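Support case: user asked for a sample of complex input and structure output to validate their parser. Sending the pair below.
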Amino acid sequence: MAEKVLMKGNEAIGEAAVLAGCRYYFGYPITPQSELPAYLSKRLPEVDGVFVQAESEVAAINMVYGAGSAGARVMTSSSSPGISLKQEGISYIAGAEIPCLLVNVVRGGPGLGNIAPAQSDYWQATRGGGHGDYRTLVLAPNSVQEMADMTVAGFEFADRFRNPVLLLSDGVLGQMMEPVSLPDPVDYDIDSKKWALGYNSKEKHERNLCSSIFLDVDELEEHNWHLYQKYQVMTDLFSTGEYKDFAVEEHLCDDAEIILVGYGIISRILKTVVEKCRKRGIKAGLVRPKVLWPYPAHVFERLAKTANQFLVVEMSCGQMVEDVKLSVNGKKPVYFFGRTGGTIPSDFEILNEVDKLVRPD
Amino acid sequence: MGKETEEIIMAGFGGQGILFLGKVLAETGMLTGQNVSWIPAYGPEMRGGTANCSVVISRNEIASPIVTEPDTLIAMNIPSVARFVDKIRPGGTLIYNSSLIDQKEFRSDIKVCAIPANQLANEVGSDKVANVVMAGAYARFSDMMNFDAFIKAFPTLVPGKKKELLELNLAALKKGYDCANSTH
């Protein structure tokens, strides 16, 4: 690990992408993520990479589709309305099984909304957003360090599963500065993917094809079940397998009577709330999903046996709370507290909610 | 054993270098081996609007980087005092720019330090370093970062620039520190 540098979250993603071997970026500017393309517009030419500010978000995502099909490590980024525009391309990319990294630095919606931080794109991120039976792996960092680390992990996961990976962040994480230890550089070989269009182009072999078109109904059904099985493998790896611990962070849950649940920047505020609860004698714990799809249901199944109740906190009117309810499966009550429209809930108001649940008098 | 955590909000007009002032504190904190976070209030406005920024410096892992009750407010103009003075933690500190803020009476439960930041900045050669004067003043009040640490951070903060610029910043830093020292 290198010496720490003070960086914005958006810039940390950019530098980590370069270190992970990404040499292609296609995007279109939008607040609050514009520091990321700004950083890469300067950085990528230094490493013989390609930076294109496309004519639109739709163009950008299809350039990602092309570069990914050719075997490159490629990314795009945007904020909420821009990610909506990219959904058609993301569906094609998922259908054609092209690895790539997508970054959403979420802002207030719906519609044009505002440029303040929000978490109201959870459903879009975890349910697909585009059309068809597909899934994207969704990672949720909560610090500038994790913006860097999960960028590297995102490229690895994308290649391993031949699937788009979405880094779901928000305006605070994108804009804030914290010290970062940048990851070691990866020497990525663009000619390492046997399925890619450009694979081993010097040798004579049958041409590869990357496509999401399956006009024959039997072929498409077979393809969809193949995708489904891949998603099952991913679900298993993130719940019982190799990435079980990567998927979730637990803090003081063993003896907790009330479990607070939140992801991203909210989880940082919840950690402060848990500390304040403990000082007041309230046995509170924190569950922070780091992976939002596949959802770490296994943790909730276990904690539903020991805790009395759950409080989910989000910067939305309540989206992830549905996954918590599915995971807890009626065994214990699940409550919700949220602020929306770009407002960040304070530790005081969350503490007040905890008080109401723990001491209902 | 001093404080474990210091939370600071700084605010002023866009163009007064509020975000850089925050970066001075965060960089100094980081270089002295502490955990730090820096969050700008970002909006569609640029020059002439309002700017503010939150910095946390801690010996421990920083849970929430969102500052709701700062230990210190550094106010560069009148609207900043109006907006944030009631948020200062009881027993906390207000450092205000008396070049632009006439008010002299504030809450009785906080420490107050008047720094004529623009005047002192002009004395060292440029109005533009009023923000760095305030960083020097903050060094007087910080339990976690001494004046020397601020001086050491500046070559990182103004890298590769002209030597005169570094010297101007260091002079401004010292002005603010000495002023805070003489009045407290």
